[in-house]
Automatic annotation (TrEMBL):
Gene Ontology annotations of biological process type: antibiotic biosynthetic process; monocarboxylic acid biosynthetic process
The name this protein goes by in its record: AB hydrolase-1 domain-containing protein
Classification lineage: Eukaryota, Fungi, Dikarya, Ascomycota, Pezizomycotina
AB hydrolase-1 domain: residues covered: 69-333
GO cellular component: membrane
Family annotation (InterPro entries): AB_hydrolase_1, AB_hydrolase_fold, AB_hydrolase_sf
């Protein structure tokens, strides 16, 4: 992944490249310390016409044209996953958390849980909660697909985006969704324990328990979001918009953080092999994927950075995919950079 830094520097002259080693030391000084037991997000319910969604808003009141940070979680994920992120961001920006239809505390909607549907429902939620633009979209994983559909529909309302290990329309070129080989090797092992996620997460015991409850409520919707046919449709729909080729964001700020997801899957592979899970063919296929994982990640990171001519890139070699749980300060840093870039540019159409 070190190669990526040099490659991007040579091809994207406007990109600001940040070294993870620098941020490990400086992020601790950037933010005031916050209590280990974070204040639980106070979610409210409101109707968007067809059903009710849960949301919360925190942070300083916005002045005219100041952006609202809108967090879009990954597939099957919920607002309570951002319990550690919220108080950091709320120190410098207004932050909006919510549960998508059928996830967490939100009711199921009438339509299929596709990215474009989620984007429209999010916009309606912002309208009924009286949250005017401009918006900064802070997305993780699958949430990146929703953010880009939102941008396609309402680009004049978005002043920047902060992405963390986000999926792209090219995801299926590299990965199976779901991957039967990974599932077979994982077997009955608990992923959060095997990967060290529970140990590394910056959530209290009660916060972790609440998150687990919220995620369990949306199991059916989570499976629908990750359905192979749905993912194919989502990727095809987004790909047809040619956002990368057109560099649709212009010079609006885009922060991209890439995590070392391969590290987690290496741990799954090792534990699964030790447990004797999966057939030899499934184990070989999993191993082959791991051997190519870094090159896939590099290519997709470069690809996403072409959305804008004004980008910041950060690679975290010591962080797995669930950065919102394990490195909340890094998530906040990406958002803060985007906020700083939008100062004096509250009208998104002028960027």
């Amino acid at each position: 992944m070190q190669k990526l830094k040099h490659t991007v520097k040579g091809t994207l002259a406007c990109a600001t490249l940040l070294r993870a080693e620098y941020h490990v030391a400086t992020l601790k000084m950037t933010y005031r310390s916050f209590d280990e037991h974070h204040q639980t997000t106070n979610l409210k319910m409101i109707s968007i016409g067809t059903h009710r969604l849960s949301f919360s808003i925190s942070g300083p009141q916005r002045a005219p044209n100041e952006p609202l940070v809108v967090v879009i979680p990954g597939s099957g994920d919920v607002a309570s996953s951002y319990t550690a992120v919220e108080p950091i961001v709320a120190q410098f920006a207004r932050i909006f958390l919510y549960d998508r239809s059928g996830l967490g505390n939100s009711e199921r909607g009438p339509g299929r849980p596709l990215a474009v549907t989620s984007a429209r429902e999010l916009h309606k939620l912002l309208e009924v909660t009286k949250q005017p633009p401009p918006f900064i979209l802070a997305a993780h994983s699958y949430g990146g697909l929703i953010a880009r559909e939102f941008y396609h529909l309402y680009s004049d309302e978005v002043v920047g985006m902060a992405f963390c290990d986000t999926a792209t329309e090219r995801h299926l070129e590299f990965f199976q969704v779901p991957d039967p080989n990974i599932a077979a090797v994982l077997g009955n092992l608990k992923m959060a324990m095997v990967t060290g996620l529970r140990l590394d997460a910056k959530l209290s015991r009660d916060e972790w328990r609440q998150r687990a409850i919220d995620i369990a409520r949306g199991d059916e919707t989570a499976q629908a979001e990750a359905n192979e046919d749905a993912v194919k449709e989502i990727c095809r729909s987004l790909g047809e918009k040619k956002q990368i080729d057109r560099q649709v964001m212009g010079n609006k700020p885009l922060s991209l953080i890439t995590c070392n997801s391969a590290r987690e899957y290496e741990r799954i592979y090792a534990a699964g092999i030790e447990a004797g899970n999966g057939t030899e063919a499934q184990q070989r296929s999993f191993r082959k994927l791991l051997d190519r994982w870094d090159s896939f990640t590099e290519e997709l990171s470069l690809y996403q950075m072409r959305l804008s001519s004004n980008t910041q890139y950060l690679y975290l070699p010591d962080c797995g995919h669930n950065i919102q749980l394990t490195r909340p300060e890094a998530v906040a840093e990406g958002i803060r950079w985007v906020v700083s870039q939008t100062k004096g540019n509250g009208d998104a159409s002028r960027l």
